[in-house]
Amino acid sequence: MSSGTYTFHSDHFNDSSRDWSEWSIFDGHAGPRTSNLLQDVLPWHIGGELWENGCMDRPYMPNDKHIIDTIKRAFVKFDSDMFEAVRKALADTSRPRADTISLLANVLSGSCALYAVFDPKNSVVRVANVGDSRAVLGRWDPQDGKYVAKVMSVDQTGFNQAEVDRISSEHPGEDVIDPKTGRVHGIMVSRAFGDSRWKWPQELNKLAYNKFWGPKPRPDDKILTPPYLTAEPDVTEIKIQGGDHPDFMIMASDGFWDKVSNDDAVACVQMWLNKYKAVDFLENEEINRPRTVAYPFTGPMDAQGGALAEMFPKASQSTEKDDVYFDSEAGTLQWRTSQKNFVVEDDNCGVHLLRNALGGNRRDLFDSVVTVQPPLSRNVRDDISINVIFFGVNVQTHADAIAQAHQPAAARERSAALSRSLRG
After folding, report:
1. Can you give the pLDDT at residue 159?
2. What contacts 3, CB < 8 A, 6 or more positions away?
3. What percent of the chain has pLDDT above 90?
4. What is the C-alpha to C-alpha distance for residues 67 and 80, in angstroms, rounded to an integer?
5. Distance CA 185, CA 55 (A)
6. Which of 100, 114, 138, 320 has the fewest CB neighbours in a 10 Å radius?
7. Is 369 within 8 Å of 358 (Cβ atoms)?
């Protein structure tokens, strides 16, 4: 997960009101190397491409093809460059084996990527997605008097008919997708960074396996016309609305969306807003300038939960048992998530969403879910990363901004402590 700012420069002045903000979620699989590399480099690679191609100084056009294509090219080029570096290493017989293995790790694992960039001058947010993480915008509906969900990305799996049609046209006559599981030759997503076993010809997969301790290749009768995955994103955009009820956006990995619907997630944030105020506390910003504030939570949900009682000391109790059941198809105990179990007890909105995804006011359920240890934990919960971005936030006075800084900062510290606890 990352967040940052692309600074607008000109020959005559620097205008911070034209700086673009970015937020990203990188959900890795089959190892952490690809997602770690993306987190460290991809947002800045995209920012460089946006700047070099004049995207930050263009007159606004809805769904500007130049900007959309620039983002798409940046994604594809990054993935291509990763693979090209590894190809050269594999061909260099004089290269130390350990160096090749280290470089190879970047493409043996894989990662989804969800990226959002906000243009404050034109009040436009653009979302690019590869994989099954998801972005959902919360927008105020004055008629119903509540926030409603607007989906900003589409899950790219074998359950997405557009993806089925795309892959079928690229690989005619092949049975690539299992209609029951939605998997693409065994993998859940139809777009991803890395994942060399679905992109390389078999001779390279076998070379990595035979000489560099790579994973066992997919069956020869499956990998006939690679690549089967792509890192080209779908890109959407929307004009942000401000006012008394400004837009917000939830970005999260699939581990969250597996448990919470789009509508329930937006309702959960609205419940949080009824108690807390989304406020930008950065003291070095101009006062009264519309801007954004993000409340992140990230942590691999795969380790010990011994300190969780201290992390969530105020959790409400619920004795309801009917929403916990054994899923015979999945072969594991599951739980239903609904608004009746939502509770507002965390001043970090990301942690608030996490708590309610994993049990809400059912304290025993929450404690149980986060206490299950590896390797069994993989059947209980997936990795969860959450970012909540509030648009159109105004700080009234500099003093108020500094005063408000303490609680979000404390929330971030608690989020980091929770993440460390979950890692063990």
Report:
1. 97
2. 21, 22, 23, 24, 294, 296, 387
3. 72
4. 20
5. 37
6. 320
7. yes
